[in-house]
Structures are given as C-alpha cells and as structure tokens.
Design goal:
Largest sheet: 7 strands, mixed
Helix content: 25-40%
Number of helices: 10
Strand content: 25-35%
Number of strands: 15
Bound molecules: NADPH dihydro-nicotinamide-adenine-dinucleotide phosphate
Distance between the termini: 19 Å
Structural class: alpha/beta
Shape: globular
CATH topology of the largest domain: Quinone Oxidoreductase, Chain A, domain 1
Order of helices and strands: EEEHEEEEHEHEHEHEHEHEHHEHE
CATH class of the largest domain: Alpha Beta
Length: 328
C-alpha cells in the first residue's frame, strides 16, 4: 500500500515479548496534534531495556519503542508548530506509553516537542539524544548547586556510555577537570580525547561503600547508581554536589547520611522524562552553545532501523561506546 511505512514494534507474548518490523499507516498511530516525519532516532539505555524487556519500560502493548526522535512537522493543529518546522522529542513517555521514534512517522502532543536548535542537524540532535540532554541537565544542576571549575575535579561514572561521554565533553569545554570512571580502561585514549584528565577503574567505586572516604572530587555526574553512587558520595569534598541520573549498576542506594550531615554534600536528582519545557529548552540551548561538535561526531556511530534490535542487546551488555544514531 502506498501510504504504509515500516515500524519496529514490540508485542507481549506468553513467554515475554517479541520484536518485529511491521508495515503500518498513519491510521495506526496514537492520538496527538502534531504529525512528524521522523528522520532520526537513537538507542539509549532505556530503549535497550524496552526492546529486551529487561525492565518494565513499555507499559502499553503493542508499542513502537524509541524515546527520542528528530524530524519535520507534516501537519499540526497545535498553535506552536506548523508544517516544515524541525523538531526534537525526548521522553514524555514516548516509546513507553505512546508510539515512539522507531518508525518513519510519529503523531504526538505538540506540548512534548522542542524546536530543533538551528546550529544542530537532526542527526546531531539524536547523537545527543536523551542521554546527552540528561548529561546537560546534570551539568546545569551542578552549576546551580554552585560547583565551579576552581572547586576541584568532577568524577563522571559510566564514562564510556552515552550520558558519560557527553558529560565529559561538556564539563571539559566548560573548564572543569574531569575524572572518568570506566570498566573499559582500554578506552582511555577515547575518554581523554573527549576531555577527561584522569581515568579510574570503575572497580574502585563499585564495591561495598564506607560511610566516608578520602575527599577526592568537588562534584560528580553518576549514571550508575547503587554502590557506585554511595562511594561517589563518600568521596565528595566538603560542600560538593552529586548529580544522580542513572542506574546502570542498580536501582538501590546503599549509602549513609554521613556525606550529607558531616560534609554538607548535596545529592541532586535528575529526571529528563517529565522535565518541564523551559528546563528542556534551556538544556537544548546550552547543548547548542557548549557541546564541541567534533567531539560529538567522535562519540557517535550511525545505524539503520534494522540494526536497532541488535544494538539494544549490545547496550544492555555495556558494549556500546558513546552514542548511537538511528537513520529512520
Ligand atoms: P549506556 O549504556 O550508554 O552507558 C552506561 C554505562 O554505565 C556503560 O557504558 C558502562 O560504562 C557503565 N556500566 C554499565 N553496567 C555497569 C555496571 N554493572 N556497573 C557499573 N557501571 C556500569 O547508557 P546511557 O548513557 O544511555 O544511560 C546511562 C544511565 O542513565 C542508564 O541507567 C539510564 O537509564 C540512565 N538515564 C537516566 C535518565 C534520566 O532521566 N534520569 C535519562 C537518560 C539515561 P563503562 O563501560 O565506561 O564503565
């Protein structure tokens, strides 16, 4: 049929879930006031969870996953958007409860969209993706907590991953000294090319935490959670701040209150999914201004929609370096 297009869908089955490519039409899309021709999407950790079923990310079945997309508005009854506008979407439940970015077309609420920054291509916005936009939210949170480059180094955990890679590039450009914590020490030259000054083995941070350790850093961006976050807090200098955005090691936090009540350390929670529009706009404006595009290019690889199921397995296995852009 002329007006059908390919979509990557997950369906619930008796023994779990199944991923397959389907031909669908715009009649099959969910409700919304803006229709977008999707040019690019991406694979984040959360997309990996959705596609493999390793965590209950998908809550409406069947689902087109893909928590991000970039594209061009085709039709709109929303006052903020008109045909031809270039837009970016991150989160808001897209790819979880509302059909997402792994299809050539999407119909969503205009209230969820941001205008694509003029200085970034659609592919670059997806090289950034939710991972990079979360990295920016984390950097802004550290700045708002008063952490400045002269205070001392910032540790970035999960350094070779998406949030980690973009965080390193942003912090380095802003003049912070970055310590990269990684399980892939063979990626030292990659991490240093993004701007990390020092590389530490993530094993230093992933073991049983003590309430307090040596004061090593003024701040942190942690995409790992669990014991790693507890150890990061225990080694944060007096008055420092830690932005917690991820759970690659686990969702638990086996920490003590010692860093908070003895060193005045702040724990900053970062959520990208439901962040209000002004916060998103600020993050995207800052990404357009503060992210070195050559470094973004170096951390991004491009794949096709057909490669997405395999990429989901790889990101779950911690085998993806940097960011994946999906050409839809
Ligand atoms: P990636 O898979 O790209 O990066 C995660 C990195 O964490 C890996 O590359 C690896 O880095 C490290 N890692 C993986 N497994 C473990 C482990 N068992 N113990 C310690 N470190 C580990 O994912 P993303 O960058 O896309 O996302 C990172 C995290 O942030 C995820 O948990 C994701 O859910 C969360 N997130 C949260 C958001 C929010 O709104 N709060 C938004 C976006 C992401 P290395 O090999 O260098 O050690």
């Amino acid at each position: 049929m002329a007006n059908t297009f390919q979509a990557l869908m997950v369906e619930k089955t008796d023994d779990g879930q199944k991923t397959s490519f389907k031909d669908i039409s715009t009649d099959d899309l969910m409700d919304g006031d803006v229709e977008v021709a999707v040019s690019h999407s991406t694979v984040n950790y959360k997309d990996g969870l959705a596609l493999t079923g390793k965590a209950p990310v998908v809550r409406v079945w069947p689902m087109i996953p893909g928590i991000d997309f970039a594209g061009t508005v085709e039709s709109s009854s929303h006052g903020g958007f008109k045909p031809g506008d270039e837009v970016v979407l991150n989160g808001f439940g897209v790819g979880e409860t509302h059909f997402g970015g792994y299809a050539k077309k999407a119909r969503v609420k205009g209230d969820w969209l941001v205008k694509k920054p003029a200085s970034l291509s659609a592919a670059q916005t997806m090289a950034i993706g939710t991972a990079g936009y979360t990295a920016m939210l984390s950097v802004i949170a550290l700045e708002k907590a008063g952490v400045v480059p002269n205070d001392g180094p910032i540790v970035v955990t999960g350094a070779s991953g998406g949030v980690g890679s973009v965080s390193i590039a942003l912090l380095a450009k802003l003049g912070y000294e970055v310590i990269a914590s990684t399980g892939r020490t063979e990626e030292e030259s990659y991490l240093k090319s993004l701007g990390a000054k020092e590389i530490i083995d993530r094993g230093e941070l992933s073991g049983d935490p003590r309430p307090l350790g040596k004061e090593r850093w003024a701040g942190a961006i942690d995409s790992v959670g669990s014991k790693t976050l507890a150890n990061v807090l225990a080694s944060t200098r007096y008055g420092g701040a830690v932005a917690a955005c991820g759970l690659a090691q686990g969702m638990d936090l086996p920490a003590s209150v010692a860093p908070f009540i003895l060193r005045g350390v702040s724990l900053l929670g970062i959520d990208s999914v439901m962040a209000p529009l002004p916060k998103r706009q600020e993050a995207w404006d800052r990404l357009a201004a503060d992210l070195d595009l050559a470094k973004l290019g170096a951390m991004a690889s491009t794949i096709s929609l057909a490669d997405v199921p395999q990429a989901a397995e790889q990101i779950m296995a911690g085998q993806v370096r940097g960011r994946l852009v999906v050409e839809v």
